[in-house]
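Final report, results section. Input specification for complex C-07:
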Amino acid sequence: MASQLLCFLVLLTLTTICKSKSCHPNDLKGLQDFKSGIHSDTSSRLSKWIGRDCCKWEGIFCSNVTKRVVSISLPGLYTSDDAPIQSAMEGELSPSITFINYLEVIDIGDLLGITGKIPSSIGLHLPNLRKLNFVRNKFTGALPESICMLSKLEELYLQENGFSGFIPWCIGGVKNLRRMDVHSNKLSGVIPESITKLKKLESLCLQENVLTGDIPENIGNLQELKETKVYVSSLPELQSARGGIPLPSKPGKLSSLSFVRLQNNRLSGTIPSSIGYLTSLQRVSLASNQLKGSIPSSIGNLKLLEMLYLSYNQLSGQLPRSIGGISKLLYLSISHNMIEGPLPREISSLSNLQSLDLSFNRLNMSTIPKWLMQLPLLSRIYLAGCEIHGEIPDYIPKSLLELDLSANHLSGRIPAWIGSFSQLYSLNLSKNKFVSEIPSTVTNLDILGVLDLHSNKLEGSVNAVFQIKSRFAEGSLTYLDLSDNNFSTGVEQIGMGGQEYIQHLNLSHNFLKGRLPTSVETLKTLQTLDLSYNGLGANLPTSLANVTALERLMLHKNQFTGRIPEEFLKLNKLKELNLSDNLLEGKIPYGKPFLDFPQSSFSGNRGLCGKPLLPCKS
Ligand SMILES: *[C@@H]1O[C@H](CO)[C@@H](O)[C@H](O)[C@H]1NC(C)=O
Ligand SMILES: *[C@@H]1O[C@H](CO)[C@@H](O)[C@H](O)[C@H]1NC(C)=O
Ligand SMILES: *[C@@H]1O[C@H](CO)[C@@H](O)[C@H](O)[C@H]1NC(C)=O
Ligand SMILES: *[C@@H]1O[C@H](CO)[C@@H](O)[C@H](O)[C@H]1NC(C)=O
Ligand SMILES: *[C@@H]1O[C@H](CO)[C@@H](O)[C@H](O)[C@H]1NC(C)=O
Ligand SMILES: *[C@@H]1O[C@H](CO)[C@@H](O)[C@H](O)[C@H]1NC(C)=O
Ligand SMILES: *[C@@H]1O[C@H](CO)[C@@H](O)[C@H](O)[C@H]1NC(C)=O
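Structure output:
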């Protein structure tokens, strides 16, 4: 009886083994080697890869027909705020991946820690590949030329890795390529001309590499695409491309192009008048190049244009009157050029304009034009360095979100009506000649995030600013610069109000007196604290050690006394420290991060000793 039972059990086990299917040995080998290359998998997805039926493994998909593995899909997972949740893997990609020769999709993007190279024979062994996603890992090495044989490849995502070498000259062979993103790598050399053969290309991102040379002129021919109804969404962004703007010189070409993003290149020459042929354009950014000459008046033909960014170039001449015809325009930025005044009155027809940046040109405005301030939707105005004189006019719309009138010659008082800008998020009045106290009405600015009033002649107390109570529970003020003024009191209120979320606080170069209050510890997110060049005294508050986000602490040129609290050793993010020229004494706390700072961070005190200064006398 017992032997019969045993027999039965053996039989049962045997049938179970025979029934457990196995996937194709090549696929099994490829995947097993892949798994053994990975030494850390926070997602634990690979630990569930057991047995031989790899078609059942997480992230693996097989074809119903051939029963072969067609897809490896193990992307990193992201939460809504872009933080990777536990899905990172570390290890090296096994070249055995090429054994899995029916593969159509490899998606191991966003795993953050995969190293290795693209197998050089990829084009020979994986001819069915449609999508290759290696985004945000630690891959290195060159893009192998055999990539050009991947004639079915439609999507190639290699951005944010450490790939180097040239883009293969034969890239034009990947004739079904629709999307190619290789930005943020170390690719060098020229952009191969054959890229213009990729007739199906919809988007191409090459920026943040070290590519040189011109943008291939024929890129304008990607218009052939139009016939096959493929939507051209963007021209490439090339970190170090130079040469002229590759736009077609005849109407009809690239006529469905809606975005031109060529910022941060070394484009030279002028903006060609033929830009006016590209009547589908909605967004144009040519910012941060070396463009010269005037803005062509054909720009007025771009009736669909919503965003025009031309800042940081060397454009000159006047703004064309035709600009008033771009009636859909929402954002206009021409800052940091050499545009001359006067501003064309036609701008007043831009009834959709929300954001206008004319800063740092040769506009010599002398006053802020009233008609400009009457644009109904204008909510962000940047008129820094526009040679504006006189008092701040009261016709500035009270509905503004951002106002920058810095680096002008504005004088007189900061008006009390500033408190009625109930939507104001950012105010920059720095580098002017304002002489007044900060009006107490600033406490009404309850969503203010950025306040920069540095380099004026403001006086009295800074208290009002520390009494702003944010409309939001979390607080909104993150950046406060009142430095280089004539303020004399007010630090005792630091940390008393709703500034828990401030990151940057600069009160240096004033005449502030009194002590730094213990309440400074409530500024939990403070990264920069500059109180240098004032008359502050008494002991350094020990509680400052609780502001552990601090990266820069500048307290030099004051009259602080006593010891440097040992607790300051908790400030382990500190990168910059200056306590020199005070009345401090005693032993400098020993250890990181203090050991990283030079003597000049501590010199000129009454009696500090210990590293990096001379040893203390015992
Ligand atoms: C393959 O199998 C899946 C799942 O069983 C099914 O949804 C799909 O329709 C099948 N495809 C073919 C081509 O048979
Ligand atoms: C700027 O404008 C003022 C008054 O309109 C004029 O007096 C001055 O010469 C101009 N400056 C320059 C550099 O054009
Ligand atoms: C305010 O304007 C000045 C001068 O234009 C500039 O240097 C500074 O960075 C601006 N402040 C902020 C917070 O952007
Ligand atoms: C603080 O302001 C002063 C004067 O405006 C400036 O020189 C200094 O660099 C600023 N400090 C920091 C940390 O930005
Ligand atoms: C700034 O304050 C100092 C010291 O309080 C004073 O001597 C100077 O006159 C003040 N400057 C202005 C422009 O008010
Ligand atoms: C500051 O740190 C000390 C210990 O170093 C702790 O006792 C105190 O509660 C902390 N204060 C705050 C507000 O976190
Ligand atoms: C600290 O400030 C003093 C002026 O008080 C300056 O001479 C010195 O170079 C500064 N040191 C560092 C490290 O910033």
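The pocket of 2-acetamido-2-deoxy-beta-D-glucopyranose (ligand 4) is lined by residues 454-455, 483-484, 506, 508-509, 528, 530, 552, 554 (CB under 6 Å). The helical segments are 2-19, 25-37, 122-125, 463-466. This concludes the modelling results for the funded period.
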